[in-house]
């Protein structure tokens, strides 16, 4: 698995978890989805993604987007 795929999978997992927690625990959990979305938008323009840095250190192969 590449860093790119790991970042997308992690972002999707965060969004789905946030929505489930918002539905079953408290509506404010939707703010976690907002944070994940804002992070994805800023990384699209800047190329900076903390999750990509973590996945690189964990030994994932480099992808096309996050080098």
Structure write-up:
Helix 1 (3-24) runs antiparallel to helix 2. The longest helix is centred in the first third of the chain and has 22 residues, at 3-24. It contains three helices and no strands. With 67 residues, the protein is mostly helical. The protein is elongated. The model has no long low-confidence stretch (mean pLDDT 94). It has one domain (3-57). It has helices at residues 3-24, 30-46, 50-57. It is 70% helix and 0% strand.
Write the layout of secondary structure elements.
Elements: H1 3-24, H2 30-46, H3 50-57
Helix pairs in contact: 1-2, 1-3
Secondary structure: number of strands: 0
- Major beta sheet summary: none
Query: Rg from C-alpha positions?
Result: 13 Å
Number of domain units = 1
Bin the strand percentage. under 5%
Which descriptors apply to this entry?
single chain, 67 residues, mainly alpha, 3 helices, 0% strand
In short:
This protein has 67 residues and is an all-alpha fold. 70% of the residues lie in helices and 0% in strands. The protein has helices at 3-24, 30-46, 50-57.
């Amino acid at each position: 698995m590449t860093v790119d795929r790991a970042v997308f999978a992690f972002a999707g997992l965060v969004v789905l978890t946030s929505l489930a927690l918002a539905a079953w625990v408290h509506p404010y959990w939707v703010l976690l989805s907002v944070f994940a979305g804002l992070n994805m938008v800023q990384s699209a323009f800047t190329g900076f993604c903390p999750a990509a840095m973590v996945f690189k250190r964990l030994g994932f192969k480099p992808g096309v987007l996050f080098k």
